[in-house]
Amino acid sequence: MKKSVRYLCVVAVSLFIVLAAAAGALFFYAPTLGIGAAVLCLLLLAATVFIALRYRRVLQGLHELWEASLDPHRQELLAAFPMPAIAVTAAGEILFANNRFRKGVVHGDDATGLMLTDVFSGISPKDLRKKTAVDVVCGDSKLTAYINCVADDETVFVLYFSDNTELKDTAAEYTASRPVVLMLCIDNLDEATADMRESARARIAGQIETMLDEWIVQSGGILRKFAGDRFMAVVENRHLNAMTKDRFSILDRVRSAFVTDGMSITVSIGVGQGKTMQECESMARQALEMALARGGDQTAIKTINGFDFYGGRSKGVERRTKVRTRVIANALGDLIRSSDRVLVMGHRQSDLDCLGSAIAMTVAARHMGKDAVTVVRRRATMAGDLIERYVEAGKADLFAEPDEIIENITPRTLLIITDTHAANMLDCPEIYETASRVAIIDHHRKLVNHIQDTALSYHEPSSSSACELVTELLQYMGEALIGRMEADALLSGIMLDTRNFVLHTGVRTFEAAAHLRRLGADTVAVKRMFSGGLEMYQKKCDLVSQAEQYHHTAIVTTDADYSDCRAVPAQAADEMLSIQGIKASFVLCVAGDEIIISARSYGECNVQLIMEALGGGGHLTMAGTQLKNTTVAEARERLCAAIDEYFRNNHAE
Q: At the N or C end, where does the chain have fewer CB atoms within 10 A?
C-alpha cells in the first residue's frame, strides 16, 4: 500500500503544480478557464490531503494491530533482536521492522506499510502459514527468512533474516562447475560413405569432428575421440544448461551440413549427470544407448531422476549389414532349444504386426520341437480375422488365453515378447512377471520404462515392423520353419506398419517382403485382411468428417465408444493425412474406461514425441496412447498443449 500511496502522491503533486501554473496563466487571458483550473487545483489538493490522512489512519491501524498482537516486552525484544526482523500481517503487509533490518537489508529505507512482495522475491503471503523457512532475494542480497507466528489467530507473523549470500553463491558456483560427461556418436558414417573413396570419407569425418570440437570448445569443454565414430566430451554443468536452452542445435547443424551431398548423416549424444566422474561416464553411456535405441539423431540426458530427450526429428538410420541379425538368430535359437516351453506374447489390443510376428515365432518354435503357443486375448485384439483363418484351418491350438497359461510357467519356460518392450503395454504383464527367461523382438523407439534384464533383446528402431525383424531372424534360424499361412501373416504386419510400403521402408523391408513371396505369401489374401464391413467404413468416414485443423494437424474428437472397433480410429487418422497441408492427424475417442488417441504423420511431424508427452509412444509416423481418469475434452486440451510444446521446441509451424 505504501508504494501505491507514494506513487499517487508523486502524481498528485505533479498535477497540482501543472494546474496551478495553468490557472495562473489563464487568469490573464481567460478568467473563466483560470477559475476552472483553480477549482481543479483545490479538488486535487483536497484529494491529496484525504489520501494522506487515510494513509495516516491506515498506518495508525497497523501500529495498533502491532501493539495489540505483542506485549510490550516482546516488542522490545524484537526491536533489540540481534538479527534483522520484521512483523507482517497474514496478507503480507509489513507492520514493523527493527533497526538491523532497516540498515542491513533495505539500506536505510522505511519498509513499514510496504507489502512483503514489494521488498523480497521468492516469498508470498501463502508461505507464511505453510512454511517455516523461505529463501528470499532482496536486491543483491540472498537471505533465508525464518517464519514464526506470534498471534493465536494467525494474523501476525515475525520473520527473522539470515544473510547467507556468500554461502549461496558458493553453493551455486559448486553446482554450476560440476563436470558433465557427453558421449557423442556419428550414427551412420559407415553407411553414408560406404561407396566413397577413402579421401572423401576422411574429409567428411574431419568436417563432422571439427563441428563437434568447435561446439564443445565454445562451451568451455574438451572433446576426445576414442573410436572411429565415437567421442567423449567433458563440460561444466553451467554450459550444459546453455546447451539445453539451445536444444542441442548441433544436431540440426550436422544433419543439414551434408544435404547437398545427397547424404543424411546424423549425430546422437548421451549426457550423464552423476555424483562422481565414474558415475557420469556410466550414465552417459546408458544415455547414448537409449538415444540410439530411439532411432538416433537426438540427445538423451540421464540423471538420477530419469531421462530427458531433445531432438529425434528424423527417422532411424537403417543398418544394411545383417551380421547382428545372424548373431541374434543363433542366440535365440539356442534359447528356444534350451527351453521346455515357449510362450510368445505381444502388446494389448494386438494388431496384425504384433500377432503376425507372434504366430510366426510360435510355428517356428514348434518346428524346432518345442511346445509353443501364442498368448493373446481373443476378445481384445484388432487382428481377429487372422486368428479366424487359423481356426478355420484347424490350428486353433496355436492360441491360448493368458489365464490358461500363467499357472504352468516353469523356470525353463521362455517368453518371447514381440512388437513392444514396455511391461505396462503387454497383453498380460503377470506372465512377464512370472517368467524368468525373456526375449524381446521390437522395432519401436525405446521408452524410458523399457523391460530390462532380458536374456535377449533384438531392438531395431530403424526396422519397419516386428514382422520384418522376425522374417530376417527366421532366415538364419533354420530351413522351412514357417509355411505359407505364416508368410501371409508376416507380410500383413509389414504392410500394416508401412501403410502398403509407403512409409518407414528400407532396403531390408523389401528384401523381407521378397523372401515372404518366395515362401508363398499371397498379396491378394493379405489385402483382404485389411478389408472391413460397410458399417466400419461408414464409421471411419464419420470420424474424418469431424476433423478440425489445429496448427498443421487435423484433430478429431468424439464421445462415441469404439471398444469393439479400435482399428477404425487408426484408419481415420491414416485417411486424414491425405488432406492438403496436414502434417499429422490425431483421433480421440472413448474405449471402455479409457480415452484412446491414434496419431499418424508422414514424417514431417514426429508424433512419437507428442504421444510420449501424454504417456504413450510409438514411431515417428505412427503412435498412440491411452488416458485414464479423464474426459474427452480434458484429453483434447492435453493433446493441444503437447502439440504446442512440440512445435515450439522444434521451431516447426
A: C
The Cα–Cα gap between 402 and 347 comes to 12
pLDDT over 60 (residue 6): no
Q: Which triple of cell numbers denotes residue 433?
A: 512377471
User: What grid cell was written down for 399?
Assistant: 492360441
Distance CA 118, CA 105 (A): 13
**What's the CA gap between 602 and 373, in Å, rounded?**
36
Helix (H, G, I), strand (E, B) or coil at 333: helix
Rounded to whole angstroms, how far apart are CA atoms 490 and 361? 10
Q: Cell numbers of 119, please?
A: 521488498
pLDDT in tens, 382-433: 888 899 999 999 999 999 999 888 888 999 999 999 999 888 889 899 999 9
The arithmetic mean of pLDDT across residues 487-515, rounded, is 89
How is residue 187 written as a grid cell? 550414427
The DSSP string of 263-305 is ----EEEEEE--SSHHHHHHHHHHHHHHHHHTTSSEEEEEETT
Using DSSP's 3-state secondary structure scheme, residue 215 falls into helix
Residue 248 CA: distances (Å) to CA of 239, 252, 299, 305: 11, 8, 7, 20
Q: In Å, how far are 85, 356, 367, 509 from 124, measured between CA atoms?
A: 17, 60, 71, 60
Give the other-Cβ count within 10 Å of 95's Cβ: 23
pTM: 0.66
In percent, how much of the chain has pLDDT > 70? 85
Q: In the structure grid, which three cell numbers stand for residue 634, read together?
A: 480434458
pLDDT in tens, 332-375: 999 999 999 999 999 988 889 999 999 999 999 999 999 999 99
DSSP lists the bridge partners of residue 502 as none
What pLDDT score does 30 carry? 62
Rounded to whole angstroms, the Cα distance separating 33 from 595 reads 71
Distance between CA atoms of 551 and 520, rounded to whole angstroms? 46
Q: How do beta strands 94-97 and 298-303 pair?
A: unpaired
Start-to-end CA span in the chain (Å): 45
Centroid of chain to Cα 513: 35
User: What does the radius of gyration of the chain's CA atoms come to, in whole angstroms?
Assistant: 35
